[in-house]
UniProtKB/TrEMBL annotation:
The keyword Transport applies. Keywords: Cytoplasm, Phosphate transport, Transport. This is Phosphate-specific transport system accessory protein PhoU. The gene is phoU_1. Gene3D superfamilies: Phosphate transport system protein phou homolog 2, domain 2. Pfam families: PhoU (PF01895). Homodimer. Its main location: cytoplasm. Plays a role in the regulation of phosphate uptake. One of its GO terms (biological process) is intracellular phosphate ion homeostasis. Residues 20-104, 121-206 form the PhoU domain.
C-alpha cells in the first residue's frame, strides 16, 4: 500500500472513531434528560441505540487489527492504530453506562422521587457530557497540552459525585419513602462518574499517541 493510501486508511479510522464518540455523547445527553424528565420512551431509544455503538467498536477493532496484520505499521503509525483500538473500547463502555442509566429510568416508573437530587444529577450529567465532548475534540486534534487540561476536569466530576451522594443520603433520611429512588440515584451517579473516568482515559491515549508514553492523568 502506498504511503498516501495508508494515511487515508488511518484518517478513515480516526474519523469513524470520532463518529462513534459523537454518537455516545448524544446518548449521554439523552439518557440524563430521560432520567430527569422521567421520559421512558426516550430511555428506550437510548437502550436501542447501544447496538449502534457496539457495531462501531466491532468495525473499528476489525479494521485496526487488519491494518496491523497487513501493513505492519511501526513507530507513530502503530501508536495511531493502537490508540483507536484502545480508545474505542473506552467509548463503548461509556455507551454501556448511558444505556444503564436509561434502564434505571424505566425501573423508576411510579416511584417517589427527590427533586433536589435529580437537579444535582442533571448538573453532573451536563458536566460529564461536556467533558466527553472536550475529550473527543482533544483526540481529533491530537492536542497533547489540551489533553492534560481536559483530564483535570475529572476532579470536578468526582466532587459533584461526592456532593450528590451526600445530598442523597440526607434526603433519604428526611424521606424514607424514597428509598428505592435513592438506590437508583447512587447507581446513576456511579455510571456518570465512570463515564468521566473514561473521558479522562481518552486524554491519556492522546498523550500516548503523541509521546509513546502510557501515563495516568
Amino acid at each position: 500500500m502506498l504511503r498516501t493510501q495508508f494515511e487515508d486508511e488511518l484518517d478513515k479510522l480516526h474519523n469513524q472513531f470520532y463518529a462513534m464518540g459523537t454518537e455516545v455523547s448524544s446518548q449521554i445527553s439523552k439518557t440524563v434528560r430521560a432520567f430527569i424528565s422521567h421520559d421512558r420512551q426516550l430511555a428506550k431509544e437510548v437502550i436501542e441505540s447501544d447496538e449502534i455503538v457496539n457495531n462501531y467498536e466491532t468495525k473499528l477493532e476489525k479494521k485496526s487489527l487488519e491494518i496491523i496484520a497487513l501493513q505492519q505499521p511501526v513507530s507513530t503509525d502503530l501508536r495511531s492504530v493502537i490508540t483507536v483500538l484502545k480508545a474505542s473500547s473506552d467509548v463503548e463502555r461509556m455507551g454501556d453506562h448511558a444505556s444503564a442509566i436509561a434502564k434505571a429510568t424505566i425501573r423508576m416508573k411510579g416511584e417517589e422521587r427527590i427533586t433536589s437530587v435529580e437537579e444535582a444529577i442533571n448538573k453532573m450529567g451536563r458536566a460529564v457530557r461536556d467533558m466527553v465532548e472536550e475529550a473527543m475534540n482533544v483526540y481529533i486534534k491530537a492536542d497533547e497540552a489540551a489533553a492534560y487540561a481536559v483530564a483535570a476536569h475529572d476532579e470536578h466530576i468526582d466532587n459533584l459525585f461526592i456532593e450528590t451522594q451526600n445530598m442523597t443520603v440526607e434526603a433519604i433520611k428526611a424521606n424514607p419513602d424514597a428509598a428505592f429512588a435513592a438506590k437508583e440515584y447512587f447507581q446513576v451517579l456511579m455510571y456518570l462518574e465512570r463515564i468521566g473516568d473514561y473521558a479522562r482515559n481518552l486524554c491519556e491515549w492522546v498523550v500516548y499517541l503523541k509521546t509513546g508514553k502510557i501515563i495516568e492523568l
